[in-house]
Amino acid sequence: MPRILVVDDDPHLREVVTYALQRAGFQVHTVRDGRAALVEVDRSPPDLVVLDVMMPEMDGLEVCRRIRAKGRLPIVFLSSRDEEVDRVLGLEMGGDDYVTKPFSTRELVARVKAVLRRAQPPAPEELAETALEVGALRLDPASRRVYVHGDEVTLTATEFELLRALMRSPGRVLSRAALSEATYGSGHHVADRTLDSHVSRARRKLRQAGADPIEAVRGVGYRLVH
Questions:
Q1: Structure pTM?
Q2: Bridge-based pairing state of the strands 174-175 and 48-52
Q3: What 3 state SS string does 143-183 have?
Q4: Is-contact 47 75, C-beta < 8 A?
Q5: Nearest to 226 by CA among 130, 132, 150, 136
Q6: CB count in 10 Å sphere of residue 70
Q7: How far apart are CA 213 and CA 226, in angstroms?
Q8: What is the mean pLDDT of each run of 10 residues along the chain (226 residues)?
């Protein structure tokens, strides 16, 4: 039973989210602020964090930054701010998804499930899949690790799936719709700007490691170049 940590300073929202997630079969633990969230993540790491952005003392973006400094723990942001710049900032800080208030609990549960699917251990067919190598890049499906010139680059689950889709078709332009389906699965609507934010963050990480293989094709999507 996956364990979800819900972080929000609104007790009513914590109660509503907890009820919805428990009905969906998740084990849920809640805390009311960012500092308590970091303590809980260190004490008993959850499988995913549902994280409010606007909180007193330490906001969700700072909590995300500190969690990301330690690993790949999946994060779904909650925010009352639907400005595009806020959504992009949350994703570029390392969030896997971003849900704005007010939201339907059905939508939140669906997004949590989608993120967990991307973050789960490799399926048997993935364990049998050979590593993908394009130029300086190497992606190992079995260990879900990515290397540039032999050095590991830490990607989120979403970034990993985006890169895998591109590496499976090197040189071919993949539309945003195709990348979205490969990353999130069918039936999951993802705004172009959201997808672009994930790609941008993955590109930045790869550049810092010494490779720049992802090329934007204006008005269409992206491709992986040698």
A1: 0.67
A2: unpaired
A3: CCEEEECCEEECCCHHHHHHHHHHHHCCCCCEEHHHHHHHH
A4: no
A5: 136
A6: 12
A7: 6
A8: 94 95 96 94 95 88 90 87 62 81 88 85 69 93 90 89 93 91 74 83 91 92 91
